Amino acid sequence: MDILLGVGTASVTAIMFCWVYGAHRKPVPAGWTRWPGASMLVCVAMTLLFPLSIGLLIKAALHPVAEIIALDLSGWLIIAGATVAALVLCPVLIRPALREKSAMQQAVNRNVAPTHALDDVAA
Predict the structure, then answer these.
(1) Contact 79, 7 (CB under 8 A)
(2) Residue 72 belongs to what H/E stretch?
(3) Of 23, 59, 95, 123, which residue is most buried, by most CB within 10 angstroms?
(4) What whole-number distance in Å separates Cα of residue 72 and Cα of residue 52?
């Protein structure tokens, strides 16, 4: 059962990361990304889910034979479905951010803050 929970949680974490990264880094960020509470809530959820999934997978790896025997066909189908969902959805969700990244690298000046002369700063 731990392997099922670990793979499921790891898949959800990967999908959530790609969705959030794509939403924050696309050319026009999603509206919810401007709310500090929403962004922080998603970051905290990912911070909690990733170690949980790693811990469950390590716990399953300590007794692999018992884990394999405990799962039936439906458990293996859920594991396969979660893995396939992560492998299919992650590239789709992160694609807007990767397009913007290549566009930003070609820009001449990415500085959003106004530049000041050194004489103005010293005065």
Answers:
(1) yes
(2) none
(3) 23
(4) 23
